[in-house]
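Shipment paperwork, digital attachment
Item: protein structure file
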Amino acid sequence: MITSKDFCRAASWTYKRPSEQREEHDFFNLLQDFKYAVIWREQKMIEYCECELNKLFRRRRAASRRQADAKSK
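Attachment content:
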């Protein structure tokens, strides 16, 4: 018999990661997908991964520029 004290939800449903950890997790998953796309020579997946990686790098670059501008002011 399970009591209310014994019940707990799956961590993935309740835990919200900080955005930096989420970005890092997404980045490494994308790199892994890219690796397998290259190994299996799946051109559409390669193009998708390249596009998503470019988006991530652009966002990162823009964020670092904003931080640099904020520090200089």
